[in-house]
Amino acid sequence: MPQTATMPQPILQIDTVTKVFDGATAVDRVTLDVAEGEFVTLLGPSGCGKSTLLRMMAGFETPTSGRILMRGRDMSKDAAYEREIGLVFQNLALFPHMNVYDNVAFGLRARKRTEGLDRKVRDILALVGLDGFEKRRTGQISGGQRQRVALARSLVTSPDVLLLDEPLSALDLKLRRQLQVELKRIQKETGITFIFVTHDQEEALSMSDRIAVMNAGRVEQFSTAVETYHHPRTRFVAQFVGETNLFEARAIRRDGDSVSLSVAGVDLPMTVAVTPGAGVRAGDAVWVAVRPEYITIGRAAGPALRARVASHSFSGATVTYALDSAAGHLLAQVPFRPGQGHPFPHGEEVRVGWAEENVTVIPD
Ligand SMILES: Nc1ncnc2c1ncn2[C@@H]1O[C@H](COP(=O)(O)OP(=O)(O)OP(=O)(O)O)[C@@H](O)[C@H]1O
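^ thats the input. predicted complex w/ adenosine-5'-triphosphate below
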């Protein structure tokens, strides 16, 4: 959801938040606005500060500096229990002596919100696909079902925001993919704002409205899943989110929001768009990112980069070619056409190219 002047007040605002532990900066001046009903993911490698940022939203850690606002009100000093925030963690702590129903009802009873309790608990259990499991103890259900109980337990209190810290990472891949789809459906059906932490870029791309890509405590990019994949603004984002070919080039000419490029000393002028405001000038070294699926391979001569086929691997619908070129090692993923075999055998000299609209230019 792009930020515009007409956008309503964000439900959650992270305003220049920093967290320092014993002189080490875990979260570094992070600013994020989250709209009501949005599914926002914090994505990044281990140790980049995702959990620390989430823990500050929950009230388990206090920011060293900066503010966290909920509906415009600074809640940095509020205790965790005073915040209208639900939590779902990887190591969920369900009550083993209680059955599924009582686990889910617990939050409402603790808050003395017992009016309509039975209907609320049963509706939420139906929403997460657990009707019929009310009487089971949490030791008598599967890992995936326990994760649904944890989700139901948090959703039943209708929090303004639900924080989820790697909730699916203990599950096997198939179950994980299934729950990703369900979680997204549940989020849209309830309209509750989700802040979801993961280090899995596929999970982030498939579920999120917007993704905050974090690296070393900082948010390098905060944009829609499509924008993050197709227009990475930094080398880190280009490489962390999806496979990419990243190579050096030189800007020959700058014309408004476009630059002409020469690649690897080969005069290969192409005009590509740059992020508005990016400080790229003629003569500058830049990085060029092209996804493997946008690299085309052919034999025709012409103004294209020469490369040699180093290997190819078949993966069902596509074939991935590893290519050695003057711009370095490249990967090209092309559709597999049955009956054609591998049209470009090992050692073959080929020409590679790309459509200009599929190229992203990243300042050095
Ligand atoms: N209580 C703490 N005391 C000292 N250092 C901490 C504390 N909590 C986190 N850190 C450090 O802060 C940095 C960020 O940690 P954090 O857990 O937020 O990363 P993360 O991105 O969530 O990683 P992971 O995916 O591995 O959970 C790390 O270097 C970590 O060692």
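Residues 21-22, 26, 44, 46-52, 199 surround adenosine-5'-triphosphate (CB under 6 Å).
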